[in-house]
From TrEMBL:
Protein name: Nuclear receptor subfamily 1 group D member 1
Region named Disordered: 1-39, 173-197, 225-319, 446-511
Ribonucleoprotein keyword on record: no
Locations listed in the record: Cell projection, Dendrite; Cell projection, Dendritic spine; Cytoplasm
Highest classification ranks of the organism: Eukaryota, Metazoa, Chordata, Craniata, Vertebrata
Database matches in InterPro entries: NHR-like_dom_sf, Nucl_hrmn_rcpt_lig-bd, Nuclear_hormone_rcpt_NR1, Nuclear_hrmn_rcpt, Znf_hrmn_rcpt, Znf_NHR/GATA
DNA sequence: CTGAAAAGGTCAGCTT
DNA sequence: AAGCTGACCTTTTCAG
C-alpha cells in the first residue's frame, strides 16, 4: 500500500510535476480553507493569540486580583486530608465557586455552540467540564503515559484529588501511538531524566558543546547538540550555545540572552519569545517579525552562521569555523549543516548533524524524511518491543520506528508543517482576517446577549473579545485599523497559523493529543524550572544540583537576591507595594506566613502589613524568599518588597501557563481571573513540591538555604508545612514525567478552588 | 531580482 | 523482493 502510494506520487510527479501529486503544495489545497474550517480552528488561533498577547498579564491582572484576593481553600490543604484554612472567607469561596460554575457553564456552552466538531479547545473543555468521568479519563490518560517505573493510581484517587495519590503499586500502562504535534515527550526513563536534568540547567535550552567532532579532528569548532531525554533531545528546544574553547569566535555571543529561552520552535508557545522578552526585560533575538522558523533557525540564530556544503555524520565531519577554516566535507555538496556561531547544530531527534530547521526543529535529513513519510503516509509503526523506551541516537535510530516517531513528535516536530507545507504570508493574513472577523462576530453576539464582562482594575476599556483585548500589547493601532482592517498578524500568531489544526475533522484521539501537546509544551516552556526539577520522575533531592539549577533559573530569569530585574513589570515595577496585604493572604495558607517569633503577636493581623522600622520581627518562610529573615539594614517594607518580588515570577508563570491552556482565553477575563485567583496558589504548591525533601524533612529556599522542619515551625509555618511534605511525597512517588506534570498542573489550575471531581 | 531556507520528491543503497 | 532510509535534488516562499 505504501509502495502504491509512493508509486502514485512518483508517477504523478513525473507526469505532471509536484502540483499534481497527492501531496501537492498548499496552493492546491486552498479550497479547503473555507471560513468554517477556519472558524473551527479559532480556538487554536485564539490560543495563539493568547500566546502572543498578554492581556491577562500585568495590566489585566493586577496584584489586587492575583494575590490580594483571598484564595479559596487550596486543594493542597485537602491533599493531606486536612481542613483548609478556615480563615478563607466563605463569601469569597462562594464567589469563586460561583464564578467557576458560571465559567464552566459558559465555557462549555460556548464551545459547544461554536465548535460543532472537536477542536483542541473543545477537547479540553469537554475533558474538564463534561463530568467526572471525563476528568477521570483525562487523568487516567496522564497516568497511562507513565513510564516503566512503578507508580500507582488508586482507583479512588480522583475524587479527593491530591490526597488520593498513593504510593506503591505498579501500573504498567503505556500510551498508544502519539498523535500530537510539538509534543515534548518526557524522558524515557527516570535515570535518563535525571541525567538530562542534571545537564539541562539554567537556560533550559542547553546545548552540549562538544569540543571536537572527531578525535582525529583538531578543529576547534563545536557541535551544538540538544541535551534531552536521550542525550540528544532537549528539554527545551532552544539552541543556545555554551561558551566553548573558541570563545573568541563568539561562542558566547548568546550568553547575554535571557535564561528564559529566547528561541522556540514555531508553535503557539513561540510567543514565549516575545513574552519572555517583555517579562524578563531582555530583547528577544531569536525571531524576526514573523517568527518564522527560518528566521529562528538561521537568520537570527546565527548572524554569523552559514550553511555550507557538507553533510554526513558527525564522525569525520569537518566543521567550518567562523574564521573560515573548513576541512573537507565528507559528503555531497547539497546537504548543508546548520550552524550557530560556528558550531554545528545537531538533530534534535537523533543527534546527527542537523541539515536545517525542519517541521519546527533542527533535524537531520534522515529524521526529516522519516517524519515526512510518517505523516504523509500515515504509517502506523509496529509497536515498540522495549516499551517505548528506546533511546534514539544516530546509530540506532532505525531500530525502532515507533520510538523514533515518538521522539520526533516529542522534540516538537509539527505534523501540520508536513500537512500544510509552507503557507504564504498573504494567506496567513487572509486566514487571520477571517478568524478575527469570526471572533468579532461571536463577541458581538455574546455582548448582545449578556452584560459586558466585569472589567478588571486596569482602567483599560474592556474589549469585546478576549482575543481582541489582547491587542494592546502589540503596536498601537489606529481606530481605523480597529474598525476596518484586519489585525496584522502578530509574529507568533502568524507562525502558529502554519500549525493549525488541519481542516479535516481530526479524530478524537488526535484532538486529545493536540491538547495534551499544547498543554505539556506550555508547561515545559513556561515553567523555567519545570523540566529539570519536577518532570523527571521522582523528586530530585533537595539541595542537589537540580535544585540549584532551579534556583539558578529563577535567579537568571529575572529574579536576583537584590530584587527583580524585570522591565515592564506592572505587577512589581520596582516600586514599593502600596498594599502588601497579599502576604497576609498568602499567610492565610500558612505557607508563606509572616511568621513571628513565639510570644510575639503578628502585628499585621488585622492591621495591614508591617510597617517600616520593624524588620527584626519579620519572618517570611516561603521557599521563594531568599531572605526569610530579612537582611540587615532593610526596612520592613523592603523585606516585604523582596518577598513580593520573589513571588512575582512564579505567579507570572502560572498566568502565562494558563493562557496557553487551549480555550482558557476564550473565557471572559472575569472568569480567567477567577480561575487564576483560585488556582495559582495550588499550582505553585505543585511546583514547590520539589523543594520539599521528605526524607530529610527539610525545605530548600531560594537562598539555597536548607531549613529543617523545626526551623520552619519556628518561622511560623503552620499545618500547611506538614501537608506540603505529605503532598510532595505523594506527588514525587508518582514520578510524573514532564508531560504528565504539565497536564496535571493544567487540571489543577482549571479545577482550582474546589473539588472538580464532584 | 536574488539568495536563503524549508518544504516535498527521488532513488540508490541498505535492511529485513 | 519488498520496504525503508537518507543524501541529494527541485520547488516554493520570503526577506532584503
Amino acid at each position: 500500500m505504501q509502495q502504491t502510494q509512493r508509486d502514485t506520487r512518483t508517477h504523478a510527479h513525473k507526469a505532471g510535476g509536484r502540483h499534481d501529486s497527492l501531496h501537492a503544495n498548499y496552493n492546491s489545497r486552498q479550497p479547503l480553507r473555507s471560513s468554517e474550517e477556519v472558524e473551527r480552528n479559532v480556538p487554536a488561533v485564539a490560543a495563539a493569540a493568547a500566546a502572543e498577547s498578554v492581556s491577562l498579564g500585568h495590566e489585566a491582572l493586577p496584584r489586587s486580583h492575583m494575590v490580594d484576593a483571598p484564595v479559596p481553600r487550596a486543594g493542597i490543604c485537602a491533599a493531606a486530608g486536612r481542613e483548609g484554612d478556615q480563615r478563607v472567607s466563605e463569601p469569597w469561596q462562594s464567589k469563586i465557586l460561583q464564578a467557576k460554575g458560571e465559567a464552566a457553564a459558559e465555557w462549555s456552552s460556548r464551545a459547544a455552540a461554536r465548535y460543532p466538531t472537536d477542536s483542541a479547545a473543545l477537547a479540553l473543555f469537554r475533558l474538564l467540564h463534561c463530568g467526572s468521568q471525563c476528568k477521570y479519563n483525562l487523568l487516567k490518560t496522564i497516568f497511562k503515559r507513565a513510564h516503566s517505573h512503578q507508580r500507582s493510581v488508586q482507583g479512588d484517587w480522583v475524587p479527593s484529588r491530591f490526597c488520593s495519590i498513593t504510593l506503591g503499586g505498579p501500573e504498567e500502562v503505556r500510551g498508544g501511538e502519539r498523535g500530537s504535534l510539538s509534543l515534548p515527550l518526557a524522558p524515557s526513563s527516570p535515570t535518563e531524566s535525571r541525567l538530562a536534568s542534571s545537564l539541562d540547567m539554567n537556560d533550559g535550552c542547553q546545548l552540549n558543546r562538544m569540543a571536537t567532532l572527531d578525535t582525529n579532528n583538531n578543529a576547534p569548532g563545536g557541535v551544538i547538540s540538544y541535551i534531552g531525554s536521550n542525550g540528544s533531545s532537549p528539554s527545551r528546544t532552544s539552541p543556545v550555545s555554551l561558551c566553548g574553547s573558541d570563545s573568541s569566535n563568539g561562542s558566547c555571543q548568546l550568553s547575554s540572552q535571557p535564561a528564559f529561552p529566547s528561541y522556540f520552535p514555531p508553535s503557539p508557545t513561540g510567543s514565549l519569545v516575545q513574552d519572555s522578552g517583555r517579562l524578563y526585560g531582555t530583547s528577544s533575538t531569536g525571531l524576526r517579525d514573523d517568527a518564522s522558523p527560518s528566521s529562528s533557525s538561521s537568520s537570527s540564530l546565527s548572524s554569523s552562521s552559514s550553511s555550507y556544503s557538507s553533510g554526513g555524520s558527525p564522525v569525520g565531519l569537518q566543521v567550518a569555523m567562523d574564521d573560515g577554516r573548513r576541512i573537507s566535507p565528507a559528503k555531497s555538496t547539497s546537504s548543508s549543516i546548520t550552524k550557530l556561531n560556528g558550531m554545528v547544530l545537531l538533530c534534535k531527534v537523533c543527534g546527527d548533524v542537523a541539515s536545517g530547521f525542519h517541521y519546527g526543529v533542527h533535524a537531520c535529513e534522515g529524521c526529516k524524511g522519516f517524519f515526512r513519510r510518517s505523516i504523509q503516509q500515515n504509517i502506523q509503526y509496529k509497536k515498540c518491543l522495549k516499551n517505548e523506551t528506546c533511546n534514539i541516537v544516530r546509530i540506532n535510530r532505525n531500530r525502532c520506528q515507533q520510538c523514533r516517531f515518538k521522539k520526533c513528535l516529542g522534540v516538537g516536530m509539527s505534523r501540520d508543517a508536513v500537512r500544510f507545507g509552507r503557507i504564504p504570508k498573504r494567506e496567513k493574513q487572509r486566514m487571520l482576517a477571517e478568524m478575527q472577523s469570526a471572533m468579532n462576530n461571536m463577541a458581538n453576539n455574546q455582548l448582545s446577549a449578556q452584560c459586558p464582562p466585569e472589567g478588571l482594575s486596569t482602567g483599560h476599556q474592556q474589549p469585546a473579545s478576549p482575543l481582541l483585548c489582547h491587542q494592546p500589547q502589540l503596536a498601537p493601532r489606529s481606530p481605523q485599523q480597529h474598525a476596518a482592517s484586519p489585525p496584522q498578524p502578530s509574529p507568533c500568531f502568524a507562525q502558529f497559523s502554519q500549525q493549525l489544526t488541519p481542516p479535516r475533522s481530526p479524530s478524537p484521539g488526535e484532538v486529545m493529543e493536540d491538547v495534551i501537546s499544547q498543554v505539556s509544551k506550555a508547561h515545559k516552556e513556561i515553567f523555567v524550572y519545570a523540566h529539570d526539577k519536577l518532570a523527571t520522575g521522582p523528586l530530585a533531592p533537595v539541595g542537589s544540583e537540580n535544585s540549584l539549577s532551579w534556583e539558578s533559573n529563577w535567579l537568571s530569569s529575572g529574579y536576583h537576591g537584590n530584587g527583580p530585574c524585570h522591565q515592564n513589570d506592572n505587577w512589581n515595577s520596582g516600586s514599593a507595594p502600596s498594599n502588601t496585604c497579599h502576604q497576609n493572604n498568602m499567610n492565610g495558607h500558612r505557607f508563606c506566613p509572616s511568621g513571628y517569633p513565639s510570644g510575639e503577636t503578628d502585628p499585621s493581623v488585622g492591621q495591614g502589613c508591617p510597617q517600616q522600622g520593624e524588620p527584626r520581627d519579620i519572618l517570611l518562610a516561603c521557599p521563594m524568599n531568599c531572605h526569610p529573615h530579612g537582611r540587615s539594614g532593610r526596612t520592613g517594607q523592603e523585606i516585604w518588597e523582596d518577598f513580593s518580588m520573589s513571588f512575582t515570577p512564579a505567579v507570572r508563570e502560572v498566568v502565562e501557563f494558563a493562557k496557553h491552556i487551549p480555550g482558557f482565553r476564550e473565557l471572559t477575563q472575569h472568569d480567567q481571573v477567577s480561575l487564576l485567583k483560585a488556582g495559582t496558589f495550588e499550582v505553585l504548591m505543585v511546583r514547590f513540591a520539589s523543594l520539599f525533601n521528605v526524607k530529610e524533612q527539610t525545605v530548600t529556599f531560594m537562598s539555597r538555604t536548607k531549613y529543617s522542619l523545626e526551623e520552619l515551625w519556628g518561622m511560623g509555618m503552620g499545618d500547611l508545612l506538614t501537608s506540603m511534605f505529605e503532598f510532595s511525597e505523594k506527588l514525587g512517588a508518582l514520578g510524573l514525567s514532564e508531560e504528565e506534570l504539565g497536564l496535571f498542573t493544567a487540571v489543577v489550575l482549571i479545577s482550582a478552588g474546589g473539588c472538580p471531581w464532584a
